[in-house]
Amino acid sequence: MALLTPDRYFSRITCVDIDRDLIGCGRIHVLLDIDNTILARDIREIPRDVGMWLGRARETGVAFCLVSNNWHDTPHRLGAELMMPVVAKAMKPLPPAFLAAMRKLGATRRDTVVIGDQLATDVLGAHVAGLPAYMLQPLVEQDLPHTLLLRNVERAILGDRAPEPVANIQQAEGERP
Ligand SMILES: [Mg+2]
């Protein structure tokens, strides 16, 4: 796999079809980025539709571990709130955090996928660790200055690749707050 090419590309986590894109692919363990993947950078909250999607995925048998480069208390606060294991200060794209998260879940490379919004951390890190990566468009435009700079590189690498169309668009839209 090309290191900087996401295996799948979605506009939002709710566009990942839990049955088809996770369970159906045998990917029952998800190493999940936080900032601008499930937590909007501007309002510091999990959008309602994202929270509902996480709940549904867990009911269906998908297990998550939060993996974040964030050095503040956000990952642990969120992990407690969502009752999910956490690997913070992850230093993605380096592999140790992904491997630690897999150990927390009892996961293997065959049943794990990384979901995140950044090429240089989530996608590259997943591939270096030997895992597939589902990339999302960031929840909001607002982000850290160095991340915004990297977005230009991402745009150059992704070119005109568009996020995948939603299979059941009414369902996804209906869940929007
Ligand atoms: Mg992120």
From TrEMBL:
Record has Hydrolase as a keyword: yes
Keyword Nucleotidyltransferase: no
GO molecular function: hydrolase activity
Pfam families tied to this protein: Hydrolase_like
Source taxon at top rank: Bacteria
Keywords for this protein: Hydrolase
Entry protein name: HAD hydrolase-like protein
